[in-house]
Write a structure and sequence with these properties.
- The chain contains 22 helices and 22 strands.
- By secondary structure, it is an alpha/beta fold.
- The protein is 34% helix and 16% strand.
- The chain is globular.
- Strands 2, 3, 4, 5, 6, 7, 19 and 20 form an 8-stranded mixed sheet that branches. It has a 5-stranded parallel sheet with strand order 9-18-10-11-14, covered by helices on one side. Strands 15-16-17 form a 3-stranded antiparallel sheet, with no helix packed on it.
- Among the domains are: 208 residues, FAD/NAD(P)-binding domain (3-Layer(bba) Sandwich); 59 residues, no CATH class.
- Its cofactor is FAD.
- It holds the Pfam family FMO-like.
- InterPro entries: FAD-binding_Monooxygenases, FAD/NAD-bd_sf, Flavin_mOase-like.
Length: 643
């Protein structure tokens, strides 16, 4: 057994080395920033009803003043707004801004065939306890989630408080007004053809950009992917005019693909869901793979009223279920029944990516021991997964190419009953690039090495800007220039000083600015849980500051962070950074910023990266720390000034 374990580790190392590239994350192109019209327009909004939006009175106008300006109207933005309302503020005091033509964030943009959440919907869909909504299946479809989020906005009277098709370019702190001045570009007309700049004021700003919000594509030689003259689309902006079907169907009929040669680049979480549907319609389907995904059984099923009644019996059932799920995955011995009972619950080694009580404090000399521990914890699970692939995929060579050779925490695991059997179909061809990726594009197809694959339609399931880019700079991810006291920008602070926060959601020198962010906070496989922990804390902070200044939640107040408290919090994160040396054994990907996140050659950059470390003991410990701090009532580390 020890010999087999050693052989597996050697294979992991070999696969990692063949995928390392000197250009790292620079091998990708952000679609929105492309200087090629065709590629840039792949990021356009295909879903906006411009006529209906033009008929609506905008909730933010030139010179308007608002209590809260929330940048983003996805799950993070909506949950932040709802928690503020529960803390004593009103919907009328809140405005949200989003570049999309509708509410939902990730679930507005991503409407590719077969899209579902990969975490149980009972713990992923926010505010279920508050709304009383019952998801139709254990893993809800994107269609259902999108409609549900719109219903949440209506329930809390936020649907008419969102300025859509708008981009916040900058927010600047005005000391004299004790408020943020926001410069917003708003669009009107077909495809947002008419643009105007609005200057508005907000006492508080909340940055809530999601982890996966900026689609990117691989850079290829010459004019890149734009050289291809056939139909071209990115999965985050699916073009049903090109494929047939409708975004309102979970499993649409893609009749326009009948008989066509279809290529898809990418074999990550998106491709796992869309490939089986493409295979049913395409004449031939070519799946271009750089790194295979770990594919486990999903276990989809309908939600029955009887099951739902049992799930919702306990008081505060959803939060209890969320916490139970984190314990099942990241605690070595949860000592309580696993309520979710899915494949996520069996991924014990995933704690290497998100933290947990085990090895929460690691000295540098313990790093080999920690890595060995989690590799051992993952070994049996990985063997089981590889055996599943071998049992399902009939062609042995294809099965081997679909088999991942990296620890489970290096790339988000996927779950499907249909992906692997798809490669038994005679019209489906796996094009494995041996870790190198696609070589180039021609007018009629793609090349891998010296071989060209002729295509009629090319689909890009190539993912998004990595969450760790810029050490998870919240301003960079939101695409907003944030200028605080003394003219310093938040991005400059992040770049030169490294991530600097109190509790992962505020930064000194940027009064009344909050952000939902993974750096120096708690993370978990269920991002919706992590979002809600921070949103609740932010709402509490805002309300507590008002109460300290005025006795009740009224009036104006300035809330900043004490620099010593901020640095103490950062050093607490740095002290645990060795815990995440587990990523040094990973294949390049978005989890480790294409292998550059732990570059040992630049010690200054490595220290800044260490400051971005999440709370190593995990999300529940982070939540416990916040709750303890709030219960003390002293607002330690904050500077609260009545205005």
């Amino acid at each position: 057994m020890a010999e087999l374990f050693a052989q597996i580790q050697e294979r992991y190392t070999a696969e990692t080395q063949k995928r390392l590239r000197p250009d790292g994350p620079a091998q990708f192109l952000n679609l929105e920033e492309s200087d090629n019209d065709r590629l840039r327009h792949l990021a356009d909004d295909p879903w906006a009803d411009h006529e209906a939006l033009d008929a609506v009175e905008p909730p933010i106008t030139q010179g308007s003043h608002h209590k809260f300006l929330i940048i983003g109207a996805g799950i993070s933005g909506l949950v932040s707004a709802v928690r503020l309302i529960e803390a004593g503020f009103t919907a009328d005091q809140i405005r949200l801004v989003d570049g999309a033509g509708g509410i939902g964030g990730t679930w507005y943009w991503n409407r590719y065939p077969g899209i579902h959440c990969d975490v149980e919907s009972y713990i992923y869909m926010p505010l279920l306890q508050e709304t009383g909504y019952m998801p139709s299946t254990k893993y809800a479809s994107g269609v259902e989630i999108r409609h549900y989020l719109n219903d949440v906005a209506k329930k809390y009277k936020l649907d008419d408080k969102v300025l859509l098709r708008a981009t916040v370019n900058s927010v600047d702190w005005d000391d004299s007004a004790n408020a943020w001045k926001a410069s917003i570009t708003a669009s009107r007309g077909a495809k947002g053809a008419t643009k105007s700049t609005i200057t508005a004021e907000a006492e508080f700003v909340v940055l809530t950009s999601g982890l996966l919000s900026k689609p990117h594509v691989p850079k290829l030689a010459g004019a890149g992917l734009s050289q291809f003259k056939g139909e071209l689309l990115h999965t985050s902006r699916w073009d049903y005019n090109a494929t047939g079907g409708s975004s309102e169907n979970v499993f649409p009929e893609l009749d326009k693909l009948n008989g066509k040669r279809v290529g898809i680049i990418g074999t990550g979480a998106t491709a796992i869901q869309v490939v089986p549907i493409l295979a049913r319609h395409a004449g031939e389907l070519f799946v271009f793979q750089r790194t295979p995904s770990a594919v486990y059984q999903r276990g989809q099923r309908d939600t029955t009223p009887e099951e739902w009644d049992k799930i919702t019996q306990p008081d505060k059932w959803q939060y209890a279920r969320m916490e139970n799920n984190v314990k099942s995955i990241t605690w070595p011995d949860p000592q309580e029944e696993d309520l979710v009972k899915d494949e996520w619950s069996r991924q014990k080694a995933y704690a290497a990516a998100v933290g947990g009580p085990e090895y929460s404090h690691v000295a540098p000399e313990q790093v080999p021991q920690v890595i060995g521990h989690f590799l051992g914890l993952d070994n049996e699970n990985s063997i089981r997964m590889r055996a599943r692939i071998a049992a399902i995929v009939e062609d042995k060579e294809t099965a081997e190419k679909l088999t991942p050779w990296y620890p489970i925490w290096c790339k988000r695991p996927t779950f499907s009953e249909t992906y692997l059997p798809t490669f038994n179909r005679p019209n489906v061809h796996l094009v494995d690039t041996d870790g190198k990726g696609v070589s180039g594009a021609t007018e009629t197809g793609l090349t891998v090495g010296d071989k060209e694959y002729p295509l009629d339609v090319l689909i890009l399931a190539t993912g998004f800007l990595a969450p760790s880019t810029g050490n998870a700079d919240p301003a960079l991810r939101a695409g907003v220039k944030v200028t605080g006291k003394g003219g310093r920008t938040l991005s400059n602070k992040w770049e030169t000083q490294g991530p600097s926060t109190l509790h992962g959601c505020m930064s000194s020198g940027f009064p009344n600015l909050f952000f939902i962010n993974p750096a120096q906070a708690g993370v978990a496989p269920n991002q919706a849980h992590a979002i809600d922990v921070q949103a609740r804390h932010i709402a509490w902070l805002a309300a507590a500051a008002h109460k300290k200044a005025h006795g009740i939640v009224v009036g104006k107040v300035a809330v900043d962070v004490d620099t010593q408290a901020e640095e103490a919090w950062a050093m607490q994160c740095v002290a645990g950074a060795a815990r995440f040396a587990t990523f040094t054994v990973c294949t390049p990907g978005y989890m480790n910023n294409e292998g550059t996140a732990l570059d040992m050659s630049d010690q200054a950059a490595l220290f800044r990266t260490a400051r971005a470390t999440p709370i190593t003991a995990g999300l529940l410990k982070y939540q416990e720390i916040l709750q303890g701090w709030r219960s003390e009532g002293a607002l330690a580390g904050l500077v609260v000034t009545p205005v």
